[in-house]
Amino acid sequence: MALDKKRKRSEGYGKRGKASAVRSKRQKISAMKRVASVDSLAWKQVEIPEMFDDAEGFYGLEEVEGVDVVREGNTVKFVAATAESDSSEDSEFEGFDDAAAEGAEPPSAPAGPAAPAISGKEPEASGPSSEGRREKGKRDKQKVPATAQAAKGDPELETNVFAQATDIAEADAEKDDVAMSEWVPIGLSSQMLTALARLKFTKPTAIQSQAIPHVLNGHDLIGKAATGSGKTLAFGIPIVENWLATTQPAGDRATSKRQPIALVLSPTRELAHQITDHLKQLCAGLSTSPYICSVTGGLAVQKQQRQLEKADIVIGTPGRMWEVMSTSNSVLSALRGIRFLVVDEADRLLQDGHFKEAEEILKALDRSAPGDEKNDDSSDNSSDQATAPGHHRQTLVFSATFNKALQQKLAGKARYNLMGEAESLEYLLKRLNFREAQPKFLDANPVSQMAENLKEGLIQCGDLEKDLYLYAVLLLQPTRRALVFTNSINTVRRLTPFLQNLNLPAFALHSDMEQKARLRSIERFKADNPDKQASSVLIATDVAARGLDIPSIDLVIHYHVPRSADDYVHRSGRTARAANSGVSILLCGPKEAVPTQRLIAKVHAAAAANTSRSKLTSSGVGVQTIDIDRRLVSHLRPRVVLSKKITETTLAKEKGAKEDTWMKQAAKELGVEYDPDELEHVGSWKGRGSGKKQREKEARAVTKDEVKQWRWELKELLSRRVNNGVSEKYLAGVDVDGLLSGARGSFLGVVEGLGL
Ligand SMILES: Nc1ncnc2c1ncn2[C@@H]1O[C@H](COP(=O)(O)OP(=O)(O)OP(=O)(O)O)[C@@H](O)[C@H]1O
């Protein structure tokens, strides 16, 4: 009601507009314009002359000074200048530009100080269904994107609206104009367009243009799109839009109780932190932003509880989320009011070890607290679904992969069969409690699950030669950052020092590491390396396979063939993200050949169906067999042998020392004497694993001096170029040593790379 009155007043001014004056004024202050919500403007009660005291409709009328109103299509904007703009321009309000309001002239930039000028065309008339349009109409009413003018010297306006203005202004000032017309049909607020322009995201990705309008119109969604195709913002943008449309100005919010509007569940901690950062980056371009926090294991729970109390958008891993929800009634009841539940990487989150907690969370969200009427909302009984608990909430489910059965279950095409192994998963899916009986299933990449700019290769090698080939690939394929996936934590533990000994900056990531060490590894991997020659390498288990968006990873190596086709898709998807290109290479041992063929066939099944036989590569569609120069590889062997010996000895000694300490402690507690030699005997057996035990025992027996000697030899080898087939016969009389000395990884002679 108040808003309507504000509008009437604004329209009144519009009729009295002085177009030319405002146009010239707009030119002068265009560099200082700022976006703000309509409620954050300094509306003042209109002083009604006594003679109008009884006039109908004047009660509660408010006015605001120093503000232009322009209309872009169906959207009304309040255009103003910041306190830094010319005071003579600020001090006097001269009316509104009718021409602009009627769309006769393109409006000036809707964004803040020196924000990228957003050019756009009118949203197309053909839009969503009538219901959709109704809902959109509602949203537009709530939203009314506004650009406010801080009347100079009005402290209230300055603090409410421009809290972040200086920072944003500084950042924006560096930007060129950004054309945003491709976003216009989606129907975003001008604030959001400004925020996207700031990120230089000039057009939506396929999943974004398909998913956002659907979510904005209040529907549930199951979204599938290739890795790196922008799924995070496909749910992030409509959630933030909803927040912008329904949130009070910052000043009022400080005093009112906060209630989160969205909960995003992520299967891994790293991904949860990344989503949080991604949404924060988006919101950095808004004049007022939602408070976004992550709730993940491994970090202080008390701090996260405090953050939750003021959070608007919560991103969490199921384990910690459940821990926090189950121990705090206030958190639980606040979360029951969320308007969006997002399940990211749904196929993993609903299936892997997160199962139990995910179930508890869903149950708790829908359970009505005593006296909590919100969840039993019977006022809206337009459909059966509407009366179900949780109906107020939209459910958005995203992943790059959904196996067929899961896809069908999610889309409601299969009957729930509450029996056997599948029982719990199906139960959980039911618990997602979609608002609609058939949530929309949107597949943005039906033919290929793999990113468009990804090249896939395969190297066949002996099972015991993988270390050698790994090293060779890292030297031969020029990369900025490489990510190596293994199937076991022990392999990560071994490969990391193995590559470090070879002077490659390698970092480890697996779930057995402390959370701070995990985050540190990622930070170091992401950091720019001062030695431009050296590319950094992250050795990880599948904990890094989902969702991680680290810039400039141009190579993914599967040291072990992944356990499933979906894992292959997600692992490979850490490169070639957004518009970038990248390479994924499988190291395939003889024992892995059959599962690898199956995997490739599965991943590229749809593409193969559309490809003529002549286009099939040696390994099938999409994956190219790489014939790496075996001679070259053999030149690298001496380095690899030394590095392996050093690594295995060091690890065996560390393990021995740990076991020794543990045994001593245990013996002390039992009050018995500890004799390592005696125990060595007791523990010997000839069964499985005895060979490894024996090797470890031998490695422990290696002296420190021997290790020192190996290190020296390796250092010497690394300081020399690798002679790639240049015959020394032709180098007679040449300083061969001089030619061969050089930086690690350099080659003497022509090297073809991997030919990808
Ligand atoms: N409209 C856009 N224009 C340009 N870049 C974009 C756009 N939307 C998102 N991006 C960028 O694309 C990258 C990948 O986005 P995101 O992490 O959301 O992908 P994803 O589809 O969730 O991938 P995954 O399946 O691996 O989780 C990010 O760096 C993001 O900043």
UniProtKB/TrEMBL annotation:
Residues 181-209 form the DEAD-box RNA helicase Q domain. Residues 469-629 form the Helicase C-terminal domain. It holds the Pfam family Helicase_C. Residues 365-377 have a biased composition (Basic and acidic residues). One of its GO terms (biological process) is rRNA processing. PROSITE patterns: DEAD_ATP_HELICASE, HELICASE_ATP_BIND_1, HELICASE_CTER, Q_MOTIF. Keywords: ATP-binding, Helicase, Hydrolase, Nucleotide-binding, RNA-binding, rRNA processing. Residues 101-120 have a biased composition (Low complexity). The keyword Thylakoid does not apply. Residues 212-420 form the Helicase ATP-binding domain. It catalyses: ATP + H2O = ADP + phosphate + H(+). Its EC number is 3.6.4.13. Residues 86-100 have a biased composition (Acidic residues). PANTHER family: RNA HELICASE (PTHR24031). RNA helicase. This is ATP-dependent RNA helicase. The lineage of its organism: Eukaryota, Fungi, Dikarya, Ascomycota, Pezizomycotina.
